[in-house]
Amino acid sequence: MSTRFDSIPAFLDHGFDDVIDVRSPAEFAEDHVPGAINLPVLSNAERAEVGTIYKQVSPFDARKIGAAIVSRNAADHIAGPLADREYRWRPLVYCWRGGQRSNSFASILSQIGWRAEVVEGGYQTWRRLVHTALYDAALLHRLVLLDGFTGTAKTALLPLVEARGGQVLDLEGLAGHRGSLLGGDPAEQPAQKGFESQLAQRLARLDPERPILVEAESSKIGRIILPPALWALMTRAPRIEITAPIEARARFLAQAYADVSADPARLSGLLDQLRAHRGHEVVDGWQKLLAEGRMVELSAALMTEHYDPAYARSRAAHAPVFSAHVAADTLDAAGLDRAADEIVAAMRGI
Questions:
Q1: Separation CA 63–CA 44 (nearest Å)
Q2: Contact (CB, 8 A) for 31 and 125
Q3: 215-254, pLDDT tens digit by residue?
Q4: Phi/psi at 314 (5° precision)
Q5: Which amino acids are annotated catalytic?
Q6: Distance CA 295, CA 65 (A)
Q7: Which pLDDT does position 185 carry in this prediction?
Q8: 218: nearest Cα among 188, 175, 253, 184
Q9: How many Å apart are CA 61 and CA 66, to the nearest integer?
Q10: In whole numbers, what is the pLDDT of the chain averaged over residues?
Q11: Residue 139 CB burial class (10 angstroms; 0-12, 13-18, ≥19)
Q12: What is the signed CA dihedral for 64, 68, 69, 75, rounded to 10 degrees?
């Protein structure tokens, strides 16, 4: 039996006990339905092998060999990850197109007595819904940008605003990157399709009638590109500016990037990437601070000599208009709580 989904909310609210992606681990890693578990009926190598036989020998031989592999892998899944499932368990299964892989696995599960169904159209149904939502349909959400210089704790404020009942969209969190030179390794980011699935899921769960706080970003976060419709909304959105003294920002930045500074060799290499932009004398000064472990002073130097000038140039070029201003005297826990309260109040008035 197959189940048809015509919208992202309907897909997310599927009502089954588990969603099982039976595609290969490589396919699953690139993108999958949020919340799905991966029980591949063909491994990466096995999928390549069956595909080669299909093209170079015959479809019949490929199906015969594939069926044997699928059966063995299905047996391993039933005896392993699915061993504790009860009689009334209802799984929803999908593969690439809702074809042989998902139907084969669902048939085996149904023979056991479980009420398994497959997704009509498979993963491609989900991908089509995501693409339509982000690239074809108009986004109607009411975004509010949280803007400010580097080190003003914008990312840290998002969960505090959410805890106070505000809606937030954490693009850096979804993209697995903190949006700057020190923001993370692009190799550790999700694939573009994976990011888009998480983004579409999040947007589907937000109320478009209420304001949604988003950190001001560029159109690209690491190697992730924001969909044009979302970027267009962000360029038109009202802005709340957060400010803080340089000393508070330096202390906060040093703490926020403690994981980066814990690897001095990597951080040194990142700093060297800015020699063409800031010159050897400036970068040599940063390297000296790093070598001496003076991370708060290094943070202050990076802001005054790199981040702040770049931000100022961008502001001069785009001349943003701020609907509200929040001045944080400190960025410790108490200071962040006060700032979050003011942001929530400002959002109500926008």
A1: 16
A2: no
A3: 999 999 999 999 999 999 999 999 999 999 999 999 999 9
A4: -65, -40
A5: 95
A6: 59
A7: 64
A8: 175
A9: 8
A10: 95
A11: middle
A12: 150
